[in-house]
Write a structure and sequence with these properties.
The chain is of the alpha+beta class and 451 residues long. Helices cover 58% and strands 18% of the residues. The protein has 3 domains: 2-150, PAS domain (Beta-Lactamase, 2-Layer Sandwich), CATH 3.30.450; 198-298, Helix Hairpins, CATH 1.10.287; 301-442, Heat Shock Protein 90, CATH 3.30.565.10.
């Protein structure tokens, strides 16, 4: 954004400079050319006036020769022609008598008027001597256009310097403006990224940039403060509920154990059923608390070696799989990694493997497959058990959403919360040949290394 603002302002300044400098340069060039031509015509008329005193009034040619000398001293060439087109006086240089000058003299004598031409880097002026209807001669003045070109070059040089100075000023202005607007926005963006990574205490600076950016930073800080309060409040509630529910359940289970020790066989059977229900209730409470923690937690991602975690969880669940007669295997390419919250992948795999081992009968297979795809880590937990119906798959990620669940119905809900909290996706598919496949995609993103 900063670059776009700077380039936009710089382009605008460049266009304004071009629209201002180029027309001004053209105007000044035309003015210099007009001034140079007018000066040459005035000098030619002055020469014609001095020559007229000699040709018409038969006065001495002293004044005419003085004007010729002054013209040569100014760097010009001049000549005076009589009515027959013969040069009667001229400067030492021959420019005013050669080239196209004779043709100009003939034209002016035939039709008395001042004729001006510019060619080969010279300006030639032919002015009639005498009356406008009956010329007695022609005064020709030739001047080099080099002084004019030098003045025009100086004009364009100054204009170019002004343009460059204006462009540099525009660059400084655009950079300052871009930083003034972009830096606070970048800080808000960085604060938002840190907030998303779990730094609930982060806030954006509010004292820099335009009013709209300051208002955005203040709004972000308000939102961040409320989120921090909600998350901390949620965590406090979870801790309180965990303590308040687990303590009486543990006390109740202890009392039932004491009663079962001294009870007769029939009463002991009833008490064993009650203990099973308490154990089920304990698992249900643990599952609800796990879901609540997954929903309220804001993971701080670190780089997790997915291949190592898969190998560890396979090794941890292998004894239970062997006991139930289920073949458990896993495969991940070496070095496969993903940015995840610490411990989240272990919890996800534990829930998926527990569900799979509960669903697959003896002789079945469960395998965990990992692969890399476009910078992301992909995991598949595949089993050949009874699978799930379409209706069950559609609601399996909701709390108690799976009507076919044999346990608490919270395992897949925990998996879904943990995966989505880390920016990934989870979906359920049928396994070819029967069974259920859980596919997990963890998006690739920068993960700061934490200690």
């Amino acid at each position: 954004m900063t670059r776009r603002i700077a380039l936009t302002v710089l382009a605008l300044v460049t266009v304004l400079l071009v629209l201002a400098v180029v027309p001004l340069g053209v105007l000044l060039t035309e003015r210099e050319e007009t001034s140079f031509r007018s000066a040459a015509e005035a000098s030619a008329r002055a020469l014609a006036s001095a020559a007229e005193e000699n040709l018409s009034d038969h006065k001495p040619e002293t004044e005419m020769l003085r004007v010729l000398a002054d013209t040569q001293a100014d760097g010009g060439c001049a000549a005076v022609y009589d009515a027959t087109g013969q040069a009667i006086a001229r400067t030492s240089c021959t420019t005013a008598t050669g080239g196209s000058v004779p043709a100009m003299v003939t034209a002016v004598l035939a039709q008395p008027r001042t004729d001006v031409t510019r060619a080969d880097g010279r300006l030639t002026v032919a002015a009639p001597i005498g009356d406008s209807e009956d010329a007695v001669g022609v005064a020709v003045l030739v001047r080099s256009a080099d002084p004019l070109n030098d003045r025009i070059a100086v004009v364009w040089g100054w204009l170019a310097a002004i343009g460059v100075a204006g462009l540099l000023a525009g660059v400084l202005l655009s950079v300052r403006l871009a930083r003034w607007v972009g830096s606070p926005l970048r800080e808000v963006d960085e604060a938002a990224q840190r907030l998303g990574e779990g730094a609930l205490e982060v806030r954006a600076p509010t004292g820099r940039g335009p009013q709209e950016v300051r208002r955005l930073a203040a709004t972000f800080n308000t939102m961040a403060g409320r989120n921090e309060a909600l998350v901390h409040g949620h965590r406090t509630v979870i801790a309180d509920v965990s303590h308040q529910l687990r303590t009486p359940l543990a006390a109740l289970r202890l009392r039932l154990d004491l009663l079962a020790a001294d009870a007769d066989e029939e009463t002991a059977t009833d008490l064993a059923g009650a203990q099973d229900e308490i154990a089920r209730l304990s698992r249900l409470v643990d599952g609800l608390l796990a879901v609540a923690r997954a929903e309220s937690a804001v993971p701080r991602p670190v780089t997790v070696r997915v291949d190592q975690v898969v190998a560890e969880r396979i090794a941890a669940w292998e004894p239970l799989a062997s006991e139930r007669g289920v073949a458990l295997a896993g495969h991940c390419p070496d070095g496969l990694s993903a940015p995840l919250g610490a411990g989240d992948l272990e919890q996800v795999l534990d829930n998926l493997l527990a569900n799979a081992l509960d669903a697959v009968p003896g002789g079945g297979h469960v395998r965990v497959e990992g692969r890399a795809g476009r910078g992301a880590a992909k995991l598949r937990v595949v089993d050949d058990g009874p699978g799930m119906s379409v209706r069950a798959r559609e609601s399996a990620f909701r709390r108690f959403g799976n009507p076919e669940a044999g346990g608490t119905g919270l395992g897949l809900a925990i998996v879904h919360r943990l995966v989505t909290a880390n920016g990934g996706t989870a979906r359920l598919e049928d396994t070819d040949g029967g069974g259920l496949t859980v596919e997990l995609d963890f998006l690739a993103r920068a993960a700061p290394m934490t200690r």
